[in-house]
UniProtKB/TrEMBL annotation:
Molecular function (Gene Ontology), one example: beta-galactosidase activity
Keyword terms: Apoplast, Glycoprotein, Glycosidase, Hydrolase, Secreted, Signal
Signal peptide: 1-23
Family: Belongs to the glycosyl hydrolase 35 family.
Name of the protein described by the UniProt record: Beta-galactosidase
Species classification: Eukaryota, Viridiplantae, Streptophyta, Embryophyta, Tracheophyta
Main location, first listed in the record: secreted
Length: 763
């Protein structure tokens, strides 16, 4: 939802592009951020540059400004920019400087959250995994090894931004910078070393002399001159810890992230509007919608564990009673205030806005078949097996050791997949099992080259014990354990030390009858390790020269590669690929990773059928949908990944076993647009670049229901509402409607009924 209905009432300034070209002095007091001597009440929105593409950035900035934003917030992602120590990447959608310049070109300010710990549901919280393997390191505490690495990266980013003249003190858009992130939530777990580290962060940041204030979120003991800020669903009750700093809200959670196997969380527009109005009502000066654009976790960037590829976040782009409305007398006049709402009276007499009555348009998006294909639902497939190399059969790996290694230590985050290989002459029994303790979060076990079973943690965070019957040879046997992760942990005290992979022990259990059991622990014996799978190492997703089998492709087969060609969908609408029927794996379009897929993971539980009640405190379990369906079925394919003229290539690596027969490409467009507004308002209805073709429903009076299920009430205007709206809107991309009896005729609703207009238009 777009919160512009709120923003229009509370924005008092914005950064015009002509003003951003000259150096600005940015300071603060207890009232607000001060830019060139003027107190600014600011509204911001989070957009993470790696979760979109460079081609998308100008349009995102344009829509952000049109939506009423003053600024864009973004994290800086250390592991994306420094994937290997002192090897940097700022190309493509990692071009931070280009992103900041795009913000500036649209006349917006920027808030640069360097961290470099970011959380953000990003893999390993944004830390590069190679940090974990530096001798003597302890992360996010008073440890010289870690502080040296953190200072090196932070200084690198600051110097790049300085060289591009992008701090406001240089004429750029960056008015605030952040060091660390939500450390106050976990600092007590680190003891005195944690306190010392926090103070070091503040001092190190200040020494970089960027000419704009530094902030720390959730850090009430941040030292002068650092500004402490609030994150959460509600920050109206937050009080800055020092009397000389403004009240700032760096993360107003517009929704919530989604896990594999989880339902879709939703936060109502009314509750979000209420939270924002209360914040500004009680002295707030800066508020940021987290997220304003959520985007996609391309590649293996999703954290977790078990964060989905989509990072939609349900993003947009004085006391009160929770359950009932109240009549409030203010300066001799009575006002009806709906429960869990704030009314805004700019002239202290007339209600200009109430947060329970959000009159923004609701757009229903629809998916359409790829009209560039003659048979859009039927792609032609070739395939290759993954497990045809000799690694699994012969036990040959890249590294040999006499212990079970954590996946972060051995794989260094180069792959989700990690193979442990063991040759052994076990104690013999006719009734034996292989038992493995894992926190992988997925384990596939092979004995002598044959898959004997697979298991995975249902919520991604739990450890589990795999145990399966095995048949062994009298001669030597090879045990191969394929451990797969789905995002390293990204939050919590000591999150970086959470085990990943096969933690051990690995045991063979022999049952000899008469309840006699023999256990042989294989953990400390010699193991070989191999990072990644053969197809990943060969880059099957981007190597055209390798041979693929063209005969009838297998279905429901584990560890299988599939490849198909397709034409790019016509037009400019966003493109998605429907992967229903597949199990779990990875997907690439023209060599570009579009992330992990797992449509076989079905969201559990029961979802309530009745509409979500915006009243009462919100949390991520309050308003849920999508129960009994795949957590994610459709996957975004940016237009910039596609060849507009000619063939495109889709490659899938299927881990669990699936059927690609139903895989197809579709486009997403506005199917219908709805509005529900009170009288004496002028509303705009838009199909966002498409023409309004018909009016499905229109009623002025007391219509009931919501978009897609509107019904007429017991009273209506004397004029046919559908005809009025059709005349004003059909054939137009957008139209303006005056919601009044002058337009729709008088009603018999009575003075005690607040008359509204409900419209659903077809695009």
């Amino acid at each position: 939802m777009s919160p512009s209905g709120i923003l229009a009432l509370i924005i008092v300034s914005f950064c015009a592009s002509s003003l951003c070209a000259t150096a600005a002095q940015v300071t603060y007091d207890n009232r607000a951020i001060i830019i060139d001597g003027k107190h600014r009440v600011l509204v911001s929105g989070s957009i993470h540059y790696p979760r979109s593409t460079t081609q998308m950035w100008p349009d995102l900035m344009k829509k952000s400004r049109e939506g009423g934003l003053d600024a864009i917030e973004t994290y800086v992602f250390w592991n994306a920019h420094e994937p290997a120590r002192r090897q940097y990447d700022f190309s493509g959608n990692l071009d931070l400087i280009r992103f900041l310049k795009t913000i500036q070109e649209e006349g917006l300010y920027a808030v640069l959250r360097i961290g470099p710990y970011v959380c953000a549901e990003w893999n390993y919280g944004g830390f590069p995994v190679w940090l974990h393997n530096i001798p003597g390191i302890q992360m996010r505490t008073d440890n010289d090894v870690f502080k040296n690495e953190m200072q090196n990266f932070t200084t690198l980013i600051v110097d790049m931004v300085k060289q591009a003249n992008l701090f406001a003190s240089q004429g750029g858009p960056v008015i605030l910078a952040q060091i660390e992130n939500e450390y106050g939530n976990v600092m007590s777990s680190y003891g005195e070393e944690g306190k010392a580290y926090m103070n070091w962060c503040a001092n190190m940041a200040q020494s970089l002399d960027i000419g704009v204030p530094w902030i720390m979120c959730q850090q009430n003991d941040a030292p002068e001159p650092i500004i402490s800020t609030c994150n959460g669903w509600y920050c109206d009750q937050y009080q800055p810890p020092r009397s000389n700093i403004p009240k700032m809200w760096t993360e107003n959670w517009t929704g919530w992230y989604k896990n594999w196997g989880g339902k879709d969380p939703h936060r109502t527009a009314e509750d979000l509007a209420f939270a924002v109005a209360r914040f500004y009502q009680l002295g707030g000066t800066f508020q940021n919608y987290y997220m304003y654009h959520g985007g996609t976790n391309f590649g293996r960037s999703a954290g977790g564990p078990y964060i989905t590829t989509s990072y939609d976040y349900d993003a947009p782009l004085d006391e009160f009673d929770q359950g009932s409305d109240k009549t409030v007398n203010f300066q001799g006049m009575n006002y009806t205030v709906p429960a869990w709402s704030v009314s805004i009276l700019p002239d202290c007499q007339n209600v200009a806005y109430n947060t329970a009555k959000v009159f923004t348009q609701t757009s229903v998006m629809v998916k359409k078949a790829n009209v560039a294909e003659e048979e859009p639902g039927s792609l032609k497939w070739s395939w290759r097996p993954e497990m045809n190399d000799k690694t699994i059969l012969l036990g040959k790996g890249d590294v040999t050791t006499d212990q079970i290694l954590d996946q972060k230590e051995a794989a260094n985050d180069l792959s989700d997949y990690f193979v442990d290989l063991k040759k052994d002459d076990p104690v013999w029994s006719h009734n034996m099992t292989l038992r493995v303790k894992s926190s992988g979060q997925i384990l596939h076990a092979f004995v002598n080259g044959e898959l004997i079973g697979s298991q995975w943690a249902k919520n991604g965070g739990e450890r589990f014990v795999f145990e399966q019957n095995v048949k062994l040879n009298h001669r030597k046997n090879t045990i191969s354990l394929l451990s797969a992760t789905v995002g390293f942990t990204n939050y919590g005290a000591f999150f970086d030390t959470v085990p990943s992979g096969i933690t051990g022990p690995v045991e063979l259990i022999g049952y000899r009858g008469d309840d006699e059991t023999v256990v042989k622990d294989l953990s400390s014996q010699k193991w070989s390790y191999k990072t990644g799978l053969e197809g990943l190492n060969q880059k099957l997703y981007s190597s055209p020269s390798l041979k693929w089998q063209q005969d009838s492709f297998p279905v429901n087969r584990t560890f299988t590669w599939y490849k198909s060609s397709f034409k790019a969908p016509l037009g400019t609408d966003p493109v998605v690929v429907d992967l229903l029927g597949m199990g779990k794996g990875l997907a690439w379009v023209n060599g570009n990773s579009i992330g992990r897929y797992w449509p076989s993971f079905i969201a559990d539980g029961d979802c309530k059928l009745e509409p979500c009640d915006y009243r009462g405190s919100y949390d991520s379990n309050k308003c849920l949908s999508n129960c009994g369906r795949p957590s994610q079925r459709w996957y975004h394919v940016p237009r910039s990944f596609l060849n507009g003229n000619g063939d495109n290539t889709l490659v899938l690596f299927e881990e669990f076993g699936g059927n690609p027969s139903s895989v197809n490409f579709q486009t997403i467009a506005v199917g219908s647009a709805c509005i529900n507004a009170e009288e004496n308002k002028k509303i705009e209805l838009s199909c966002q670049g498409r023409q309004i073709s018909a009016v499905k429903f229109a009623s002025f009076g007391n219509p009931q229901g919501s978009c897609g299920s509107f019904v007429k009430g017991y009273c209506e205007g004397s004029k046919d509402a559908s005809s009025v709206v059709e005349k004003a809107c059909v054939g137009q991309e957008s139209c303006t409607i005056d919601v009044s009896e002058d337009s729709f005729g008088s009603t018999t609703c009575g003075d005690d009924v607040i008359k509204t207009l409900a419209v659903e238009a077809i695009c």
